[in-house]
Every structure is written in structure tokens, then in C-alpha cells.
Specification:
The complex is a heterodimer of chains A (about 210) and B (about 260). With about 210 residues, chain A is mostly helical. Chain A contains nine helices and no strands. In chain A, α4 packs antiparallel against α7 and α7 runs antiparallel to α9. Chain A is flat, with a radius of gyration of 20 Å. The relative contact order of chain B is 0.17. Chain B starts with 15 loop residues before the first strand and ends with a helix. In chain B, strands 6-7-8-3-9-10 form a six-stranded mixed β-sheet, sandwiched between helices. A four-stranded antiparallel β-sheet of chain B has the order 2-1-4-5, covered by helices on one side. Classes of the chains: A mainly alpha (about 210), B alpha/beta (about 260). At the A-B interface, α5 and α6 of A face α2, β6, α3 and α5 of B.
């Protein structure tokens, strides 16, 4: 199902890109930092519809005609980049919540930057960020319905297309309710899973 | 203790563990460290005291480059401290640090806290790292808590774990940044006992502390700092009984007076 495909690829892609962007935005290196700030602010400043529209309509005009990237791939890339900007800000919030002493302690043990981040800071930050990350995922999941405007059929699009069929006449309410129910099931299970994760990863720490 | 410094060139100075020459540091316009000159020999125990804001923590944090100094030279072992990240990491591997707020990693168990640096920085196999960690946890008398998380331990226990975590890297020098200041009074002793043992084993130590009893028992030298300067430097007995500068006399009368 297209909804699931878009959402899964969006999530899987957005998380690592978001982590890199969040780290980049906190970096001391001016070039890396300004690149990340510009990237994040650009994608956050543009509505998702615009992104999808650009990806499907405008982009091919600028690309050489022999380069023919599939419409779905273009939508996926746009969606992923869009979400990763949001993800980056969520993760940056988590990184800021980690006390400075944690990185100092890791540094004092001789760890390199990447080890400090990968072994000490990110595991704690991501754990703290589970609610925020899942929140972003849920909104991404629901945003996938917007791919309709570029002519891709997600769950809601399929329902609407079916409603145009004369055999479905009079069942429009049932169709929409079904779509709403499916969305609710997925979103609710995501939020339950996040609660489970939080409980499982809780190590009773105080700072 | 392993002696990493002897592997490096320039071993003629190897009995000098830490050397600071005319070190100056500013926070903006604020001059935190003024012309600090300090030599620490292998096996020396040094206690640094002084009023808050006098730059004592800043000074020892410069030694492993948690703070950057702007002027002067610092040499650790025989490695001069520069901006070079590789060199800073090399120095940090041979310098252990214990913080006021312990800074244990809350997402890891006590044992993992002690193993993580030996495994990832020194590339030791897990088995070996764990065996060594247990040995050090035994020494700070907390081995039975190895499977717990830091959040489940008392402050004194956490600080002892933090000491064990540093020792697992076999440091040549240990820096203590007010290790007992965040502890309840009845827990101070258990941490100080561990530190005294460590000192008796011949570890090179620099301790920023207000525990004057500790200074009297183990220190080879006591350093008094005020307003970013080393005001007085002496063996504990003359330091406490016959302080030279007025500022030191005032400080000592205030902290020993009650």
C-alpha cells in the first residue's frame, strides 16, 4: 500500500538525515553549521504541498529530458527531506537536554567526537526524544495523503477513486469511515509502541 | 599503573607528569587564569584550594583540554598540549578525571560505564575489559552493584563508580574536581577513603577540594589560589601552620574556624 510505503521510507530516511542535520547545526565548523541551518530553515519554511508539487511538476522541467526519474521516487525524496528537517529540530531539542557533563565525561575518557555522540549522547537524547520522534512520524503518516495532488493514490486516494465507481454509489460514508479507521489504527499503534519503548528503555536515572 | 609516557620521545622529562608554563586564560574580558606555573612530578599528590571563582577548577580542566587556555604552554607526560585533536585525545587517555557531579552515563549499567572507554577507546575485548572493571569496582568496594544503573545508587556510590571508571583507563594522572562537594556529609568519607588509598598506592593526583583533612593526610603540596593566581604553594604542614600570605591566612581562618 502506497501510504505505508511512503511513510516507512520517509521515516527510515528522515531519522538518520535528521540526526546528521541536528549534529551539524550544533557543530563548531561554520560551513557545516550554516549549511545545516539553511537546509533546515528552507525545508521548514515550505509547505509540503509545494514540495510535492515541485517534485512532480517543476523538477522534470529543469532536468535533462533523458533523465527520467520516477514520479514516486521524486515524491519520496521530497517527503524524506521535508521530514528530516523537522526531525532535525526534534533531535536538536533532545541533544540540548543532555547535560554538558555527559560530553565532558566522555571526552575526559579520550573518546573521539563520533564515539562521544554515538555511544553517550545520542542514545540518551533519542530515548528522551521518543515522544517527539513518534509525533513527527504520525504527522508524516497522515501527510502522505497529500501525494494525491500529484496523482499518486494513497489509501484515501484509493477510497476516493473507488467512490467514483457507480457500484460504490451511496457508500461514501462507509468508505471514508474505513479510511479514517485505518489511519487511526496505524497512528494509535505507533503511539502505543512509543509508550512501550519508553518503558522498556527507562533505566530509572535522575540527573 | 602503565606508564604510557615512557613510550613517547623525550623521556628525559618523564618524571615530570604535568607542566604548566605561564598559562593564561580569559572568558571574554574576564581574566580567569593569570600566569599559572605548575610542575607536578610522577607520584606527587597535590591539593588545590581557594575561594570559589578563583580558577582552581578551570586550571585542572585546562590540563585535559576541557577548557582551552589562550597563552602559555601545558605539557602532560611528554606531550605538549596543542589544538591538535589527536594529541588532545592522546593526553585525555592518560589523564583520568573525576567530576563534582559524577557524570556517570545514566543509560549504561555501572559495569558498562567502566567498560565503555577501555572497549571503544583502547579496543580491549569485552571479556578483558569486564574483568578489569570488576577488579577496580572491587577496589572501590562497589562490585556488588555492577549490574545496577547509576540512578539507583547513592551519591557516594556513584562517585566511587566514577573513580573506578577513570582507573579502568590506567591513567598516569588523576584529576579530581571537587569530588565530594555534591555529596551528603555521611557519604564524603567513603569517597575520601578511596582517594586516600589511591594516593597511598602512588597515583599522581591533583585534587581541587575543600577537604582540609584530606589535604593534611595525603598531600605532598597544597596550592592556594585566588583571582586566577597561585598565591601560595607549600607542604601541608607549613601551609596550615604558618601561611605566608594574608589572603591565605584569611581563607584558612574562615574554613577551619568552624
Amino acid at each position: 500500500m502506497l501510504t505505508l510505503l511512503l511513510a516507512t521510507v520517509g521515516m527510515v530516511g528522515a531519522l538518520p538525515i535528521g540526526i546528521v542535520l541536528a549534529l551539524g547545526r550544533r557543530s563548531n565548523m561554520p560551513i557545516v553549521k550554516s549549511f545545516c541551518v539553511v537546509f533546515i530553515e528552507f525545508w521548514r519554511g515550505v509547505p509540503l504541498i509545494t514540495v510535492l508539487f515541485m517534485a512532480s511538476v517543476m523538477l522534470p522541467l529543469f532536468l535533462p529530458s533523458e533523465m527520467n526519474v520516477d514520479r514516486l521516487v521524486r515524491a519520496l525524496v521530497g517527503l524524506t527531506l521535508f521530514q528530516s528537517a523537522y526531525m532535525a529540530e526534534v533531535i536538536r531539542g533532545g541533544l540540548q537536554a543532555i547535560p554538558k557533563g555527559q560530553e565532558e565525561a566522555a571526552a575526559a575518557l579520550g573518546m573521539t567526537y563520533w564515539k562521544r555522540m554515538g555511544l553517550i549522547i545520542l542514545p540518551q537524547a533519542l530515548k528522551m526524544m521518543i515522544p517527539g520522534i513518534v509525533n513527527t512520524f504520525i504527522s508524516l503518516f497522515k501527510d502522505t495523503t497529500l501525494v494525491m495532488i500529484i496523482g499518486l493514490f494513497d489509501l484515501l486516494g484509493i477510497v476516493q477513486a473507488a467512490l467514483a465507481d457507480s457500484r460504490w454509489l451511496g457508500f461514501s460514508l462507509e468508505g471514508y469511515v474505513f479510511a479514517a479507521f485505518m489511519f487511526w489504527i496505524f497512528c494509535f499503534s505507533m503511539s502505543r509502541y512509543s509508550q512501550y519503548l519508553e518503558r522498556k528503555l527507562h533505566t530509572g536515572h535522575k540527573r | 599503573m602503565t606508564q604510557a609516557a615512557t613510550n613517547n620521545p623525550g623521556t628525559s622529562t618523564s618524571d615530570l607528569m604535568v607542566e604548566m608554563r605561564d598559562v593564561n586564560k580569559w572568558y571574554g574580558d574576564f581574566h580567569v587564569l593569570r600566569d599559572i606555573n605548575l610542575e607536578v612530578k610522577r607520584g606527587e599528590r597535590i591539593v588545590i584550594c581557594g575561594p570559589s571563582g578563583s580558577g582552581k577548577s578551570t586550571m585542572i580542566r585546562c590540563i585535559n583540554h576541557l577548557e582551552e587556555h589562550q597563552k602559555g604552554e601545558i605539557t602532560v607526560g611528554s606531550v605538549p598540549l596543542t589544538q591538535d585533536v589527536k594529541r588532545i585525545e592522546q593526553i585525555r587517555r592518560s589523564v583520568g578525571m573525576v567530576f563534582q557531579h559524577f557524570n556517570l552515563f545514566p543509560h549504561l549499567t555501572v559495569l558498562e560505564n567502566c567498560c565503555i572507554a577501555p572497549m571503544w577507546v583502547q579496543k580491549k575485548p569485552r571479556k578483558e575489559a569486564e574483568a578489569m572493571a570488576m577488579q577496580y569496582l572491587e577496589r572501590v568496594r562497589i562490585a556488588e552493584q555492577a549490574k545496577k544503573y547509576p540512578g539507583q545508587l547513592s551519591g557516594g556510590q556513584q562517585q566511587r563508580v566514577a573513580i573506578a571508571r577513570s582507573l579502568c583507563m590506567h591513567p598516569d594522572v588523576m584529576l579530581f574536581d571537587e569530588p565530594t562537594s555534591a555529596l551528603d556529609p555521611e557519604m564524603i568519607k567513603e569517597v575520601l577513603d578511596v582517594m586516600v588509598e589511591l594516593a597511598e598506592e602512588g597515583m599522581t593526583m591533583l585534587c581541587v577540594t575543600h577537604e582540609m583533612g584530606f589535604a593534611k593526610t595525603v598531600a605532598d603540596r597544597v596550592i592556594f589560589m585566588d583571582q586566577g593566581q597561585i598565591i601560595e604553594e607549600n607542604a601541608p604542614e607549613p601551609f596550615f601552620n604558618n601561611p605566608q600570605s594574608e589572603r591565605t591566612q584569611l581563607f584558612l581562618s574562615q574554613i577551619l574556624g568552624h
